[in-house]
Design brief:
alpha+beta; two-stranded antiparallel ribbon; 58% helix; four-stranded antiparallel beta sheet
Length: 186
């Protein structure tokens, strides 16, 4: 039989994973600096499959304002270029027959606002919402302990759960604010 402490420990481990997923997700939002993480969600149609860009090409950032993407197989050059064009990154790749080069354009004020909205949506969908869902599940597990532990212990478990939830929601908010600031200062 699980105890309240075990429920809280399990909940906290799941919270850490949810925060990691959220953090990985906001890393894919491009800022004005070259960061290969922005290509994490780009999918390339080749070999009859839908593969991630990193599976079919090497991605480097030779300087802070550009990318060089070199397909492992030159026959995929056009497919890689098309996948980048079709992504929501706003890049305009140039292909020299061997590699794809991308110069990172400066972000317009409108694009910055759109990206901030995107960060806030991801914060809600991939950060706060999973935390709240996990809290609900943990609350349900704690309620099942009624009768096996005292009312004071149940209340303490619920209070501890709320403290942990507040802590992780604050982490989501902090990461989102950091990304917003990063978007506004470039």
């Amino acid at each position: 039989m699980t105890t309240g402490k075990e429920v809280l420990q399990s909940f906290e481990e799941k919270m850490k994973k949810a925060i990691e997923v959220f953090n990985d997700e906001i890393k894919t939002i491009r800022t004005g600096r070259a960061n290969p993480e922005v290509f994490k969600r780009v999918r390339v149609e080749c070999y009859g499959s839908n593969l991630s860009l990193s599976e079919v090409a090497g991605i480097t950032a030779p300087d802070g304002r550009s990318f060089m993407i070199q397909p492992f197989d030159k026959t995929n050059l056009k497919a890689v270029e098309q996948a980048i064009v079709n992504s929501d990154l706003g890049f305009n790749p140039s292909n020299d027959g061997q590699v794809i080069r991308i110069i990172i354009p400066a972000l317009s004020e409108d694009r910055r606002k759109d990206l901030v909205k995107q960060v806030n949506k991801i914060a809600e969908d991939k950060g706060r919402l999973p935390v709240r869902n996990l809290r609900r599940d943990a609350n349900d597990q704690i309620k099942k302990l009624k009768g096996t532990v005292s009312e004071d212990e149940l209340k303490r478990f619920h209070d501890d759960l709320e403290k942990v939830t507040t802590k992780y929601i604050a982490q989501v908010d902090e990461l989102a604010q950091k990304k917003e600031k990063e978007l506004q200062t470039i």
